[in-house]
């Protein structure tokens, strides 16, 4: 019935997401309770393991680069990768059963857009393994045991939560731990870049960035100040989006801040100045009075008390009537919140004793830090909004 439909059949992302939700709800009605439990506890772990193995063996990459991406047999894939043919066949059969590749003849498979993306985008294939397998999945495994041990209390202490329960030691929170391992740091940065690429509406499509440039030219005049400071900006992907939209931005007027360990090895273009900075300390003098401070998916990593400290530490650097803080985050709706947001909420709980917030909770947090909300920019059916904030 729906065989002619694919992800390109919709005129916009909102329509595609609505259609996906309708189909998913229908699937749930068709599934028996056993089907659901089977999918969640057998299928997802088994298929993730198969996909990761195929990625590591080079199947998707070599299928594209050395066989042109056309339909292929398992013996050819084994020849290309040097892996055992029987192993490849078992893995390919398993992922074909999930419609991740298409069986077009006996033992012969065609690529889907998902299989193509695994070949073309290293940050997408990085979703399997790395940060998600080594850290996130471990967090989900221990979470129920941790919560049972705490008498089922809502966790709020980033330095004593499920993360430390998993580690068996209270010396580091998740970010500190990630920073001590260069491979995990790079995987983490890739994972954030991947979210930014596929999961979210770019901030420059939500907030009118033309106004940033216009008002900065008028107000800043003699003493140039940074245009945009991306606080906790990871690899700088959000600043790159700004540059694509405004390619004439003067060099150095975009500032990328993050912890030194996270910024190590990050490559950016000359327009972006990399500035190691811990947001629990005051802004460096040269980054005071910026037109925009951007915090994208930063505050959802922290419980209220800590998030308030981050905002209160930033506030003195903001020039009243001029600087704006853009908090690019999800808002949990009170009715039927988006599943991507509620899943992210449990992830924040598992890793950092943090949470996604409702509009009311964001208002309380911002106000309690001596700041005020100017406006909330909400794209239709997008996962995230932008909360525009100034000094009260
Ligand atoms: C969820 S990631 C978001 C990254 C990026 N803004 C994005 O949206 O893709 C949170 C970022 O906050 C950074 N971070 C954590 N603690 C920090 C601190 N004390 N000072 C500065 N950055 C920090 C992390 O290293 C990480 O890059």
From TrEMBL:
<dbReference type="InterPro" id="IPR029063">
    <property type="entry name" value="SAM-dependent_MTases_sf"/>
</dbReference>
<dbReference type="GO" id="GO:0032259">
    <property type="term" value="P:methylation"/>
</dbReference>
<dbReference type="InterPro" id="IPR016461">
    <property type="entry name" value="COMT-like"/>
</dbReference>
<protein>
    <submittedName>
        <fullName>S-adenosyl-L-methionine-dependent methyltransferase</fullName>
    </submittedName>
</protein>
<dbReference type="GO" id="GO:0008171">
    <property type="term" value="F:O-methyltransferase activity"/>
</dbReference>
<keyword id="KW-0949">S-adenosyl-L-methionine</keyword>
<dbReference type="InterPro" id="IPR036388">
    <property type="entry name" value="WH-like_DNA-bd_sf"/>
</dbReference>
<keyword id="KW-0808">Transferase</keyword>
<feature type="active site" description="Proton acceptor">
    <location>
        <position position="300"/>
    </location>
</feature>
<keyword id="KW-0489">Methyltransferase</keyword>
<dbReference type="InterPro" id="IPR001077">
    <property type="entry name" value="COMT_C"/>
</dbReference>
<dbReference type="Pfam" id="PF00891">
    <property type="entry name" value="Methyltransf_2"/>
</dbReference>
<feature type="domain" description="O-methyltransferase C-terminal">
    <location>
        <begin position="172"/>
        <end position="371"/>
    </location>
</feature>
<dbReference type="InterPro" id="IPR036390">
    <property type="entry name" value="WH_DNA-bd_sf"/>
</dbReference>
